[in-house]
Each structure stands twice: as C-alpha cells, then as structure tokens.
Design a protein that fits this description.
The structure holds two protein chains of two kinds. By secondary structure, chain A is an all-alpha fold. Chain A has one domain. Chain A contains ten helices and no strands. In chain A, about 35% of the residues are buried. By secondary structure, chain B is an alpha/beta fold. Chain B has two domains: about 300 residues, Rossmann fold (3-Layer(aba) Sandwich); about 110 residues, no CATH class. In chain B, strands 1-2-3-6-7-9-11 form a seven-stranded mixed β-sheet, sandwiched between helices. In chain B, strands 4-5-8-10 form a four-stranded antiparallel β-sheet. In chain B, about 60% of the residues are buried. The chains are: A mainly alpha, B alpha/beta. At the A-B interface, helix 1, helix 2, helix 3 and helix 10 of A face helix 12, helix 14, helix 16 and helix 17 of B.
Amino acid sequence: MDRAAFEHLYLHANSIATLGFLRGMARLMAAPMPTEATPEMQEFVAGIEHDMNNPDTFDWSVYDGIDEGVEALGKAREEALAANLPFFNDCVEMSDEADSGDGMPDVARYLASVHAARERLAPRIDDSLAKVDHAALAGALATLPTDLPPLTGALSAAELEQWVELYEANHAGLLQVVEETRKPEPVI
Amino acid sequence: MIDLNTLSPREAAYIAHNSYFTLKDWVKGEPSAGMEKTSTVKRMVVGNGIGSGVKGGDTNTSLRSTDLKGASLNTVFRGETAGLSTGFGYVLSFRRNGLNQVIIASRGTRVEHSLADGLADLHAAITSFGGYGQVHAGFANAFASIVPNLARQETRIRDADIVHCVGHSLGGAISTLVAAHYAGARGAGVKLYTFGSPRVGAHVTPQAFESLIGKDNIYRVSHDLDPVAMVGPYPYSHVNGLASDANNMMLRSPTAKLIGVANHDMRRYVESMSDAARDLSWQDVRGFSAEVVHDNAVLARWLLRSVDNPSVFTTRLVEGLSVILKAFAHFLQMQSVTSAIISGMTAIDLFAAALSRGIDRYAAANPQLLAGLQVAAVWARVAVVGMKFTIAVIKAIMTRMMDVIKPLMMEAIAKVGAGNPLPLMIAGATAITGHVIA
C-alpha cells in the first residue's frame, strides 16, 4: 500500500473507531430509564451487600494481575513517549460535548478536525505504515463491501458516516481493518 | 450555635496540619527521620507558629489564634513504620465548657521503604482489629507502634471527658483506629476528625467503627477530587461514607473539576475550613458539602483530566475510560438502583464489585450497555475485536484506571502537609491503591 492510500486509511480507521465510540456512548446516555430495577440488578446489589456483610465471600482474585498490568503499561508508555511521535487522539480537536460523551458527534466537523491534523500526524502515519502487518491488513480490506467508496481514498462526511454505520453493525472485516490499522500506534 | 465540646472546623484543620511538625526538621522544610524537639513542636502547635521553613506569610496553623490558645502540649509521641521510628503526633489537653478534653493528633506516616512491610496485596494485607472487623495491616501496624507511647498518657486520656482524634491523609487513617481503640476502651466521649483520609476498613468494619464512636462524632472531610480519599478500593469503605451521612463532608476541590494532588494538600483543607470574616461551624461545612453532587456519575468523571500531568492524563484514552465509567454509573441509575452501599462507591469500586459478583450475567441482562461498553473498550484498546466483554476486559479497564490513579496518589502523598516535595510514603502504599508501590 502506498503512503497516500495508507494516510487515508489511517485517518479513516481512527475516525470510524472514535465516532463509533462516541455515538455508542451518546445513545447509551440518551436511553430511557426503566422505572424499576431488573431482577438481575436487584440480585447484583444484594450480592454486593452480602459481600460487605460476609468478608469470606468476596473474591479477592479480582485484583490479581493488576499490579503486573500497571507495570507493563508504565513501561509501554515510557517507550511510546520516548519515540517522540504524535498520537492521533492528541492531535484531533474535539468538542467539549463529544469529549464527555454527552452528545452525538457532528461527523462533518469531526472529519474537518481530522484533516486539519494531517500534517501533525505525518510522522505517526509514516511509522504506522512501516510497522503495520500488510498481509493481515490486505486480507481484511479484501472483505470490505465494494459498494462503498474505499477507505484508502478521500471520503465525504456522508460517506464516512456510512462506514461508521457498518462499524456499528459489527461488520467483522471492517472491525479487523480498523484494528490492524491502529495497532502500530501504542496506547498511552 | 458553637459546640464547645467539639473542635471547630478551623481548630481541627489546624491540628491536622500542625501535627506534621512532629517529624524532625519538617519545620525547616527539610524533613528527615526522627522526632522533632518538643520545644519546637510546642512553638508550632500553641506558640507563634513561625519556623525557619514556615514564614510569617505562609499558613500559620498554631492554635494560638483559636479558642485553644491555652492548651497544654503533654507529649510528642513516636510511631514506627517499615522499621523506622519517627515523630508521629502529639497529645494536647485543655479545659473548655467545664470539661477536661484531650486531643490526639496523628500525621501521615513515613515510609521510604514501603515494601518492608511485606504487603503483597490487599487480601494478604488485611488483618483483624480489636474484634471490630478487618482493616489494612499497614495502618494497623502503624497504630500498634504508637499505642505504647500513648499508654504513657493513659490516665489523662482515660480520665478526660472528651477525647478528640485528628489527622490528615494517613494520619486520618491512624486517627480512625485511635478513635476506635479509645471508644472501645472508654465506651463514650470520643470524637474523630479526618481530612483526606483513605479508607481504613473493609466489609462491615466501618459500620462497626461508626457504632462504636457514634456517627455524629465522626467528622470526615474530603475534597471531591482528592485521589487519596478515593482509595483503597472495594471492599474497603469509609466511615460515614454514604452520601446521605450528614458528617460525610465532601467539598468542592480547589482544582474545580480536575483531579489533582493539590486537592490532597492539607493547606488546601485549611483554606476550605477557613473564612476571612468568621469562624466556620460544622453546619457551614455541611452546607458547602451539599453543593457537591455525590453520585457515581460525577465520581466516574474524575479520570477525565488531571492538572498535574497533562502529557499523559489529557489523552483521549483517559477520556474514553472516563466515559466507560460514566456509562456504567449511568447503567446503575437506569436500573433505579438506590442502594446506599452503591451510592458510596467510586467507579473503581463498582467494577471490582461487578467482577466479584460475576459481571457477565448482569451485562448480559442489558445488551445496550454491553454493546456500549464493548465499543468503548475496543476504541480505548483495552480490548481487541472479537473479545467478549468479560472479566478480562473489565480487568483491563481497571488496570488502566489504576495506572492513572497510582502516580497521582503517590504524588499527592509526597506533597502532603507543608507542600514540599518529599521522599515520603506511607506504611504500605498498598493501603492506598491496593497494590505495592516499589
């Protein structure tokens, strides 16, 4: 895949993941509240109260492995920051409303913010292109529907939204493309 | 109306602050191992309050400007953590309202060698305390080290009409145990005042302490975004930890909506307990607390941003996590769950509780939540595509949360009290995060 195509893919994959996340959260927040607790939730709360009153019943293994995980994250973050490359999520300006997950994101505004961050992200895109698993990515791309404009080219807001909807529908190939594309960029 | 049998907010805050001067050379801004001279502690507690490291314009927390100006400093006592013996607090006595009253002040504990206590994890570190329940061993050990020293004041403490136990941060935790100890020994007449205290006991222990001391006699003050006051995690909980508890006085943080170490600084607590025009009453402080929203949705947002480390904590990852937490809190609200226990929990507690009770069943009962959490977890890359929203995912999220809070908590404690960056930690940082900090 050439640099120009991967740049589009990188920007779109990250946009799809972020917009899918923000839209999902906004829908969850807007969901109507049931008037009564479900039996499952009543049982959940009763279980917590039972744990509090019966010290021997609490499962302390819930904390197993977390120390090791925190240590690994710390090392990974040190390495990621030492590379001195920009991060997608730090470069793309978001609205306060979208930041807090309270409202539905404006796809057009978001896409404009992504494009505004292209130059800043260039070193990261170069690095990701060098590290991405090209075979796995090509395999996943081959499973995408052909009736939508390709992710490796420019997309309008409306076209990007179509991809987001496919992502929200858990299209396996698209989920894989998004994951493979984002994988080289460390999480900090 | 002023209650002369209760320390005022300013008196309690000053005591919690000036108890740090029992640590050798704290007054110079260069604390070291050992205990400060009694004459110096006396100057800082009931004298002019001015030391070489505490200039006239700095916070002067001597009690000389309060109704306790005539109080007598009876002793400065030692405590031991990690094999290191240091100045730990003091006993002060005074007569007011016709009653003999005693103050036992404890400062945060010194632990350069946090691993020395051998605290591997929360479960291993838990120990029984006086037949009242389970507490963190780090606090219990520190308490045990000061008991022999307090015993020299046993007659005074036993014969006093009222015993006031005061502390900030880890000193608040130790004071909780001191209060429980003397409440058990005396039967009544013990009051507890804490500022930014971590949770001390697990399971039903806090309720046992409340019964012993009396909920009305426990004055627990915290800033809503003080990272130390948020830990250790479930099943640890606070005394007077319910949102409905009148003396659970959670105040707006100095850093507004930003979590930060400044919210733990005792000087900020002194400011929160002060008013230039008048002495505040506890009723005033309760009024301030009423302005703070105590629900889980707000607590879930504390991860959103930190003022202290923007290079890491303002990342979208943290924001994403905060939304995950917010979603979970929202889920509970959606279910009209009104359990008092739930209302006192942070988002970390909720996740731990959910893990302990088997999250799968509850998430499965709400497909919308499950879908929302899945997409958030994938976006934040704490889970991978195709991974079920199971224990592994929640643990990954909890790990991320701990990864955020741990450095904040450590920095908060390191800057405790006089505000000087210090190589100080507590006896078993495990008590704070639930994890050993090397």
